[in-house]
Amino acid sequence: MRLYIVLWFCICLFSFELHAQNLVLNPSFENINAGNLLCNAVFPSPPALFNNSISNWTQPTDGTPNVYHASLPNACGYSTNSSSPVSFGKQTPRTGDSYVGLFTYGVDPNAPFVYREYVQGELMTPLVVGANYKITFWVSLAERSSHASDNFGIKFHQGASFQNTTANIPNPDNFLMSGPISDTSDWVQVTMCYSPGTAGITHFSIGNFHDNATTQLNPTGFTNAYPDVAYYFIDDVSIHEITGNVFNNAGNDTIVSICSNGPTENLFDYLGNGVDPSGFWEGPSNLGNGYLGTFDPTLNGPGTYMYIVPGWVSFCNLMTLVPPDTAFVTVEHSANPVITSPTNFCEGDVAINLMADIAGGIWTGSGIVNPTNGTFDPVVAGVGTHEIIYTLTGFCAGADTIAIHVSPIPEVNFVASQLEGCVPLSIDFANTNGAPNSMCTWNFGDGNFSNSCTPSNMFTQAGCYDISLTVTENGCSNTDTITSMICAAESPQAGFTMTPNQVILWDNNEDLKLFNSSTGAESYLWTWDGIEFSTEENPIVSLDTFLSEARFDICLFATNSQGCEDSICQTFEVSEGLIYYVPNSFTPDGDEFNQIFQPVFTRGYDPTDYNFTIYNRWGELVWESNDPGIGWDGAYSGQMLQSGTYSWRIEFKLLENDERRLIHGHVNLIR
């Protein structure tokens, strides 16, 4: 590799030419309109008077500067030799017959705020961007000023400017910092410098651009009607371009080769004779030994380094910076390259171009299909580890080696605990590729996923589901999908009704009819008390089967074509029924026949829940018993009652369903 060094060096000398044309129009204020000159010293003067009294000069604010002219009588306030008691003073013009006057400091007598006045001049031609200009004007303090001030300044404009204010205009382009000017008898020169940064500058303003706090004042001892003012006369304004020749000695451009494994060198030695040693270096890393630019390949990195020599020239009594001279050094490390490409690939990956930190070398090794671009194709390389070499040749030689590993695409094999069933259907899955470091991602097709290699999934909706498994090993992934691997069927719904749902023994009962209301089933099995008795859809059962009092569970098992089953059971009751007899008369006359009135219950009632009462014709209770084995003998409180008709009432509970019954009637007592 080669090191390219380009050096620009400049030794700047200026030969000043101060005889350039004055660019200020009407620089000494001689071109006036005599008819508009103001005689009496009126403060403030009407704004239009100044603009109409003089050519090429205007007022840039509401402050009101004044024109003084020798043609005015001495009694006038604005005569150059004024004897008027209201005048700010008098002064002989520096040249010609005219000058202007303005406040550089003051407080408005009608309101206590900052008061300033400025004069705005016009240029013959616009200023040139980057050119250097010297500004000169002459000032004299009016002898009736209470203060002298500093900060005379200048501000340039693109066209005439006007601001509706009597306060100070901020931000001058340049200003005097030498202290207050106190001379009232003679003219004092003010000099400034300016180099435009923008085009189109045609006007400029002169005055004090600072506020009261930053304006330095010296009291004169004169007591004026305006106690806090500084008033100055101005004459002979000039703006000249300063021209000169700049001589450059950049030295010899040269090309130098430096290897990154080479010795330490001083870059300055390659720049030729006559190079200014006052410069300095900038770049990607810091070079040692100042202007020499000591370059240590083991410490300094590659990139572009720049040698800079500042340029200065004496301009307007100031040291002014001119454009520096520069030289560029480009360092390219070519030894000990470093391969920056990835080292792990999968068997089916697309080919990529390998990268190194220094370009221009040759690539070799298994899988390299383009030695210049370093194109590595994993398919061509095949599974395994491959040595790849990157070599730089030429003036600075070097090489780097890496091992690239191409991993195989993993196999995807998986099984399920069953392939079909009825919802809700729980299925266990397993990855069976046998690799212990596999990472698994399952998609069960029902919106559920899992990262376990042996997951379970519950299918809650009927349908067939595609099952996908992605296996990742060593950063390489492979996916397999089995379409409709798991099919979940809807389960049937068993249901039936029966007529009747209960019978009484010894009655003339009809057959038991079973009505199947199942859905989604194709085969049926009926049982009672666990004993199978029919596979018909709607069987009829003879009630002769049931010969004893009992409750039987009749169950229906409904099955669909997928073997899914549902069942339902109902209770069928066989009871003996209720049998009783109540006589309608009895004869308690002392013989051996029909002495007791007693109902006869043979079956179907609960003897422990029994109440028997007798009432006379007035509704009075005459006898009561809770024992069905005891009858009424016709007596009340030990006394035999008369013959007649009596009411009876019997309340009891049925055995078959715990229902309570109430029966009543009449019995005839006969003596």
Q: What is the topology?
A:
Layout: E1 3-7, H1 47-53, E2 57-58, E3 66-69, E4 98-106, E5 119-122, E6 132-141, E7 147-149, E8 152-157, E9 174-175, E10 188-194, E11 203-208, E12 217-219, E13 229-242, E14 254-256, E15 265-266, E16 280-282, E17 294-295, E18 303-315, E19 318-331, E20 344-346, E21 352-353, E22 362-365, E23 368-370, E24 375-376, H2 378-381, E25 384-392, E26 398-407, E27 414-416, E28 420-422, E29 425-431, E30 439-443, E31 449-450, E32 456-459, E33 463-473, E34 476-489, E35 496-499, E36 502-504, E37 512-516, E38 523-528, E39 531-534, E40 540-541, E41 550-559, E42 565-575, E43 579-581, E44 585-586, E45 600-603, E46 605-615, E47 621-625, E48 635-636, E49 639-640, E50 644-654, E51 660-669
Parallel strand pairs: 20-26, 28-34, 36-42, 44-51
Antiparallel strand pairs: 1-14, 1-19, 2-5, 3-4, 4-13, 5-11, 6-10, 6-13, 7-12, 8-9, 8-11, 15-17, 16-18, 18-19, 21-24, 22-25, 23-24, 25-26, 27-29, 29-32, 30-31, 30-33, 33-34, 35-37, 37-40, 38-39, 38-41, 41-42, 43-45, 46-47, 46-50, 48-49, 50-51
